[in-house]
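Posting for a labmate who doesn't have an account.
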Amino acid sequence: MSEVVVRLPSIEPGRRPRFDYTGTHRYLITLPVFADRRVFVERQRVLTVLHALRDSALVHRFDVYAYCFLPSDLTLVVRGKDTKANLKEFLRAFRLLSSNAMTQELGHTLWKKKYFERVLRKNEETRAIVASVFERPVKAGLIKQASQYPYQGSFVLVPKKQYRR
């Protein structure tokens, strides 16, 4: 009989295990559109994807602190609601649902395979990150003031102007 040697992946001394994307973490995510096409220039397309985002966030237990649709990407600030919230599952479900809703109209898949995500550090202020996301249309030269842009918002934050009496 031959001996079978199983090698388990080792963690270097002093290094943490890989991050598992589960729990109440906050994330900054940018989802680029397939082939950098200008998809989000029509209100109905944005609404279709926004509905998929809302439904996926509810099912997968995520709060959406900010969303901003630029013509060829979507940027999000999200936070898991509890210890079972899994970012990878949430994004997989959202990307599939939104792509299925748009593929027939577009003639191609909605999203690129890869996206950008960053776990926000504890010392990073959520409102400051949200404000930077809402400034993206200004930096892209689409508008002069962030408040003018129709394709951004939040499912949980109330705009400051609504606090006025």
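Reply:
Got it, the structure tokens are right above this. Residues 30 and 116 are 5 Å apart (CA to CA).
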